[in-house]
Amino acid sequence: MWLVDLLVAVGVFLYNLPTIATSAPHLTYGSGDYAALVVLSLVMCAIYILRRRSPLAVLVAMLALACAQLLFGAPIIMADIIVLFAVYTVATRYVWPVSLPAALVVVGWLLVAIVPNLGDDFIDVGQLGVLIVVTLWVWTWGTLVRIRRQYMDGLRERAEQAERQRETNARIAVAEERARIAREIHDIVSHSLSVVVLMSDGAAAKVDSEPERAKSAMLTARDTGRTALTDMRRMLGVLRDDEPGSHAPQPGTAQLDALVEQSYAAGLPVTLTIEGEATSVPDGIGLTIYRLVQEALTNVRKHAGPNLTRADVRLEYRQDEVEVCITDNGQGPVNDRPDSNGHGLVGMRERVAAHGGTFTAGPRESSGFEITAMLPLEGGS
């Protein structure tokens, strides 16, 4: 850009040279006043190159040089055009409380320099008015350019903020997805491994006395392990799209019968009761219900104690919500049960809260433990 400023300065100076003598009647080529005006115009054009670095200082220096012209009998010369460029630059860089007074100072200089010479056939009132209007127009143009630049800068800043917000949201989404995967893996591993361990213990105990029951238990353990592997592949498929089974359907309320049967086969005296008219449950709600029951039954196996005789899973459909309740009559010490700070209960509470539902968990008045969740059907996903 400095090259453009240099060309403008050189052009104005060269255009100014042949017109200096006409700026005042007494000037003649080669006189001292003429030489002084040439030097003043040269300096004025030279400092124009610095307008981008110090626009206000350049304008002040130009006005000082323009006032010095009066000492040599030239109210105004062609080189003074470059002052308008300086006014424009100031208007593009400074707010109007700074740039407008600068423009008015230039107008004041025009009045001081020209008005006393109006009767000398130098310039008339109409031409003076044009110069004032042009000065104010140049200031207005520069001000509009500054406003547009600020507007464009604001748009760029908002676009950058939006991009940063998108990146932040993406990181949050990744963190939430990892937390979801962690909960899914916890549910799958804790439930499946507990079933496999129980069935393996039962098979080991009956392998000599009741080989058929031992075989059935081992087959159940095998099927449970395969199901767990399939579920794990599906969850890991979120990270690797080409993983086999990554697009398999998620479990839901339709798989609760199989889940309860699997737990019953593992030795847990559990029953499933469904009340109300089964409505279409959104996939997200169905998965949450399945994982709640799965985690709750896992906790019953781990913490209910040897006196457990009954565990109930109740699913009640209502008009706009579904209630899930898992209870047992275990007699184990309350301190051995998972509390509200347990990892499993925290995961269940987060699942329910994600759908705008309510979750409660705690010991029953008589005996055992109870987990209840209310999930709204409207807006589910």
From TrEMBL:
Reaction catalysis annotation: ATP + protein L-histidine = ADP + protein N-phospho-L-histidine
Domain Histidine kinase/HSP90-like ATPase as annotated: residue spans: 284-379
Alphabetized Pfam families for the sequence: DUF7134, HATPase_c, HisKA_3
EC top class, as a word: transferase
Keywords on record: ATP-binding, Kinase, Membrane, Nucleotide-binding, Phosphoprotein, Transferase, Transmembrane, Transmembrane helix, Two-component regulatory system
InterPro entries per record: DUF7134 (IPR055558), HATPase_C_sf (IPR036890), HATPase_dom (IPR003594), Sensor_HK_TwoCompSys (IPR050482), Sig_transdc_His_kin_sub3_dim/P (IPR011712)
Domain of life, per lineage: Bacteria
Membrane-traversing stretches: 33-50, 57-88, 94-115, 122-142
EC number: 2.7.13.3
Keyword hit for Repressor: no
Annotated GO MF terms: kinase activity
SUPFAM superfamilies: ATPase domain of HSP90 chaperone/DNA topoisomerase II/histidine kinase
UniProt keyword Plastid present: no
Protein name in the entry: histidine kinase
Upper classification of the organism: Bacteria, Bacillati, Actinomycetota, Actinomycetes, Micrococcales
